[in-house]
Design a protein that fits this description.
Elements: E1 3-7, E2 10-13, E3 18-25, E4 34-39, E5 46-51, E6 58-60, E7 68-73, E8 78-83, E9 92-98, E10 104-105, E11 109-114
Parallel strand pairs: 2-11
Antiparallel strand pairs: 1-3, 3-8, 4-5, 4-9, 5-6, 7-8, 9-10, 9-11
Length: 115
């Protein structure tokens, strides 16, 4: 079992930045690929970014490429999502996910970008 707790969401103006954190506990964090997903009102949850368990490779949705950066600190059992140049369409609840086959989700953190 893995417990995930996201933090760092909030209200920001368009063009601003936020950094999300996801703290993990319960099992060996470095064994898990990690990802960020988001869900806007009335829409399905969508992939945002992912990082391999070692941190050696990262992957991004086209919509956030060049603006968002995913990183992890295995010593702190934490994965981050640095979000720059935020747009109103980035408004969503952001979820952290651990694992690829058996997966675990956090409770989500709200990000609201005002125009």
């Amino acid at each position: 079992q893995v417990q995930l707790v996201e933090s760092g969401g909030g209200l920001v103006q368009a063009g601003g930045s936020l950094r999300l954190s996801c703290a993990a506990s319960g099992r060996t964090f470095s064994n898990y690929a990690m990802g960020w997903f988001r869900q806007a009102p009335g829409k399905e949850r969508e992939f945002v970014a992912a990082i391999k368990n070692s941190g050696s490779s990262t992957f991004y949705a086209d919509s956030v490429k060049g603006r968002f950066t995913i990183s992890r600190d295995n010593a702190k059992n934490t994965v981050y999502l640095q979000m720059n140049s935020l747009k109103p369409e980035d408004t969503a609840v952001y979820y952290c996910k651990a694992g690829l086959l058996r997966v675990y989700w956090g409770q989500g953190t709200q990000v609201t970008v005002s125009s």
